[in-house]
TrEMBL record:
Residues 27-314 form the Dehydrogenase E1 component domain. It comes from Xanthobacter dioxanivorans. Pfam families: E1_dh. The pyruvate dehydrogenase complex catalyzes the overall conversion of pyruvate to acetyl-CoA and CO(2). It contains multiple copies of three enzymatic components: pyruvate dehydrogenase (E1), dihydrolipoamide acetyltransferase (E2) and lipoamide dehydrogenase (E3). Its cofactor is thiamine diphosphate. This is Thiamine pyrophosphate-dependent dehydrogenase E1 component subunit alpha. Keywords: Oxidoreductase, Thiamine pyrophosphate.
Length: 333
């Protein structure tokens, strides 16, 4: 379902092996973390739903490579990649997904509500499009407080059907907010091709609001990183922008969805588009040895295993305290 990317090939001349290897490490960290979650979910260790970003990692890694720790992001229901790339501690991430008291949100949020203000991760979100308004508010705060920070709203193409997206684009344009809209266009909205749900192109919508729009190959991490570096600079200097990343959802909508609605040929065609494969080919072209890739893979595996083991040793949340932070005591209102 993914449309052919329209971006020019990324400029290899600007790439060094060290830079691309750094991006590759992040891609692999997200992929292996989610693969670990697949097995733990199948074993019943992960409560609730999980939605995996396998095939879409280059968007998270490329965009985050252009952000600083103080920049803020708001995520979606498919937010593991965003969270990890923004620099969440892996221990706290896995502990949260295993519903441990040691989790980043004390086990109360889980996969769809992971947040960590200390790294500017304002939260994953189970409500389609809701992250847009959170990022908009953050961008407004950055501007009002005179900070040199940007906010980034990640959203899927399914969010184009939400009225909130239109309101957020209008306000961001009207108030010239430092807000980057990043659409992860994987062609799907749950079990429905987005083409059966959306009547317009994002480029045309952005034009209607007077917001610059760029469309790139979202499976090429260097293309995303290069585009994001330019665009984040412009957004920081004044005003919103839209970055539309054409990408590929490999797993089902949620883990456990057998994708019976999907043409098997479509799934088979995704192999060559795998962002990790694309990055590995680029690294080979830059003369980076297989041994360096293997060293990265080993390092990633051991970081993940350590985080999983730490999470497993964590404690169940205190259910009696579940209301804390939900309601304010009456006397405080
Ligand atoms: C406001 C709202 N409407 C409907 C849903 C049900 N729903 C969950 S995910 C989804 C589709 C999301 O598609 P997209 O935004 O493209 O993200 P993707 O799953 O492709 O990453 C829908 C309709 C919801 N969670 N929130």
């Amino acid at each position: 379902m993914t449309e052919a990317p329209t971006s020019p090939p990324s400029d290899g001349a600007a790439n060094t092996g060290a830079r691309v290897l750094g991006l590759y490490r992040q891609l692999l960290l997200i992929r292996r973390a989610e693969e670990r979650l697949i097995t733990m979910f199948a074993d019943g260790e992960v409560p609730g739903f999980i939605h995996l970003s396998v095939g879409q990692e280059a968007v998270s890694v490329g965009v985050m490579s252009a952000l600083g720790a103080q920049d803020t992001i708001a995520s979606t229901h498919r937010g593991h990649g965003h969270a990890i790339a923004k620099g969440l501690p892996l221990d706290g991430f896995f502990a949260e997904l295993l519903a441990r008291d040691e989790g980043l949100c004390r086990g109360r949020g889980g996969s769809m509500h992971v947040a960590d203000m200390s790294v500017g991760m304002l939260g994953a979100n189970g409500i389609v499009g809701a992250g847009l308004s959170i990022a908009l508010g953050s961008a407004l705060a950055h501007k009002r407080l005179g900070r040199e920070q940007v906010a980034v709203a990640f959203f899927g193409d399914g969010a184009l059907a939400e009225g909130l997206l239109h309101e957020c684009m209008n306000m961001a344009a009207l108030w010239r907010l430092p807000l980057l809209f990043v659409c992860e266009n994987n062609g799907w909205s749950e079990f429905l091709p987005s083409s059966k749900q959306i009547s317009f192109a994002l480029a045309d919508l952005a034009r209607a609001y007077g917001i610059p729009h760029t469309r790139i190959d979202g499976n090429d991490v260097v293309a995303v990183a290069d585009a994001a570096a330019d665009i984040v600079g412009a957004v920081r200097a004044g005003g919103p922008a839209v970055l539309e990343c054409m990408t590929t959802r490999v797993r089902g909508h949620f883990e456990g969805d057998a994708q019976k609605y999907r043409d098997p040929d479509d799934l088979d065609a995704l192999g060559p588009l795998d962002p990790i494969r694309v990055a590995a080919l680029l690294l080979a072209g830059l003369g980076v040895e297989d041994a360096a890739l293997k060293a990265v893979a080993d390092e990633v595996e051991s970081r993940i295993e350590a985080a999983v083991e730490a999470a497993r040793k964590g404690h169940d949340p205190d259910f009696a305290a579940a209301y804390a932070d939900v309601y304010s005591p009456a006397e405080a209102v």
